[in-house]
Write a structure and sequence with these properties.
Blueprint lengths: L24 E2 L11 H13 L9 H15 L8 E4 L2 H12 L5 E6 L4 H7 L4 E6 L1 E3 L2 E3 L2 H9 L3 E7 L11 H13 L3 E5 L20 H5 L1 E5 L2 H4 L7 E4 L3 H13 L9 H11 L1 H25 L4 E2 L7 E5 L7 H12 L1 E2 L1 E2 L10 E5 L4 H21 L1
Parallel strand pairs: 1-13, 3-4, 3-7, 7-8, 8-9
Antiparallel strand pairs: 2-10, 5-6, 9-10, 11-12, 12-15, 14-15
């Protein structure tokens, strides 16, 4: 029904992803190369036609759209008072770091993880504390002994958790989330759960909202949610935080308002409502398409580039690729790929943990881009091995 195969020319649109040299193929930043749901486009066109773009409020239909979506898709009934509008998940996380911790305290992250978490911590004068995920048999798990040791530290006051996990594509199960919650409760650590990738799951797989797992998880957490990643509307700056605990919610509300990131632009509400009320059919086809792209890459790498391996994952459209058999410096390898083949990927070191031996690849693009990218990757690996 929807066309994900036809490339969209994004050059000369002030695109972060496509402001590149001629002949390069960007498969790095988490930004899809598909037009968003027609329902969202129609809602924006209707708003544009009005011609007046003044100050905006948050209507009841905005919170109702979030509540109905999470209830229907994720079996978790949120309440209207839990929800606070914000301009983005990253601004919300940074505001929460400032409000919920003090300068010099530790903020814990499970690495490798979304690299911008580090910015939110470091730029605010807090200490980054990493608990490395254990990578065994091609999959990642929490190192519970190390995780608890980091929580025990009295300077550790906050965990920024990624659910589902970017970049490894892991959907955390209910038992794991419950254990995380219990340990954080035991040591007085608040949890910020970044759930922006929650709707980007393979058909047949579902993410579990952190706050839905138990009363403990609900009571100690701030969930950051948005339609932006799954509907490719990040530039519209529309997101929400869900905070069931009233005392914690007040602190978060103060944080977002103090930092002036709690007011919507002209298109933020309409886009979110249209996404959640009418965008589900588009999203279902998107997930099927990106899953097929993932399978194509997995098979190509297995058959054509056996010196690399793709980490198994069931969420996000981001692939975490192990390059440790050819190099332990994915930064130099990524630079080599771009210089020699034009393929632009993310180097893994910036995600912490064992990332220095991985690259991250975005497959939310037409199949022809994926095929081109794989041929470039194969060529790049061959050239890299010849020059070693």
């Amino acid at each position: 029904m929807y066309d994900f195969d036809t490339p969209v020319d994004r050059k000369n649109t002030n695109s972060l992803k496509w402001d590149i040299k001629e002949g390069e193929l960007p498969m790095w930043v988490a930004d899809m190369d598909f037009q968003t749901s027609p329902a969202i486009i129609h809602a924006l066109e209707k708003r544009v036609e009005n011609g007046v773009y003044g100050y905006n409020i948050i209507p009841e239909e905005w919170s109702r759209a979030y509540i109905n979506w999470w209830d229907k898709r994720h079996h978790f009934k949120m309440e209207e008072e839990w929800l606070i509008f914000c301009t983005g998940v990253v601004p919300a996380i940074s505001s929460c770091v400032r409000k919920l911790t003090s300068v010099g305290e530790n903020v814990l992250v499970l690495t490798p993880v979304y690299n911008i978490f580090f910015n939110s911590i470091y730029n605010n004068g807090r200490n980054i504390l990493q608990s490395h995920l254990r990578y065994e048999n091609g999959a990642y798990e929490i190192d519970w002994k190390d995780f608890e040791e980091k929580l025990v530290n009295p300077q550790t006051s906050l965990l920024i958790f990624c659910n589902p996990h970017n970049p490894v594509g892991k959907i955390w199960d209910k038992e794991t989330l419950a254990r995380v919650g219990e340990l954080c409760k035991k040591y007085g650590v608040t949890v910020i759960s970044d759930e922006i990738h929650c709707d980007l799951t393979e058909p047949g797989y579902e993410y579990v909202p952190f706050a839905s797992v138990s009363e403990v998880c609900k009571d100690i957490s701030v969930s950051c949610i948005a339609p932006t990643k799954c509907f490719n509307i990040a530039g519209l700056q529309t997101a929400a935080v869900s905070v069931p605990n009233p005392l914690l919610r007040h602190k978060v509300w103060r944080a977002l308002n103090t930092d002036e990131v709690a007011e919507p632009n002209t298109f933020a509400v309409q886009a979110a409502v249209a996404a959640f009320e009418e965008g589900e059919p588009w999203l279902e086809e998107l997930n099927a398409y990106t899953t097929a792209n993932r399978r194509y890459v997995e098979e190509f790498v297995k058959n054509e580039i056996p010196s690399l391996s793709v980490v198994s994952g069931h969420a996000t459209y981001l692939l975490w690729i192990d390059v440790s058999k050819i190099t332990e410096n994915s930064k130099s390898f990524s630079r080599f790929l771009r210089e020699k083949t034009g393929l632009f990927v993310s180097e893994g070191k910036e995600y912490g943990g064992d990332g220095k031996s991985f690259i991250r690849l975005n497959v939310a693009c037409p199949r022809c881009y994926v095929e081109d990218g794989m041929n470039r990757l194969k060529e790049g690996v061959s050239l890299f091995l010849l020059e070693k």
